[in-house]
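Lay summary. Proteins are chains of building blocks that fold into shapes, and those shapes determine what they do. In this project we predict the shape from the chain. Here is one chain we studied, written as its sequence of building blocks.
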Amino acid sequence: MREADTLKTDYSIRDLASEFDVTARTLRFYEQKGLLSPGRKGASRVYSEADRARLVLILRGKRVGFSLDEIREMLDMEAITSRNPSALAAMLNRFHQRIADLQTQREDIDAAIAELEAGRTWLQDRMENREPSEEIKHRARAFEALATARMNVWTGASPEPDSHETQA
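And here is the predicted shape, written in a compact code that computers can read:
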């Protein structure tokens, strides 16, 4: 098979849905919102390599928390390629703000992970150190002695600590 045969330039809705683990409904929604513009072959949608690349950017933008409106603005190549400083400054501001938000979230996540790891370590220590405390051992010996004494009375067993024989 030649390399040109392996390069795919047209994608069906099923192809993209499967590749990116999204539903066909999601792709149609992105189309409705003006984020994707597939061609048509009869009643079927035909997505180009450019549509696929846009989908990668849409999903990446959503993953880092941008709204679909913000993503649409960022994908607007006319605004990006224009020399309009206010449009570029607004876009740059959004990037700075989103980066700051994500850094704050990362700090919160790092703190939560540290707390969970400390709790996990504490629990592992408790699981591995199954030896009861001296106080519990002392109480257990006292309870055992009391229970043995009571059992000897009830069963008529010999008062000797190691004797388990009963009297007739």
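What the prediction tells us: Strands lie at 10-11, 39-41, 44-48.
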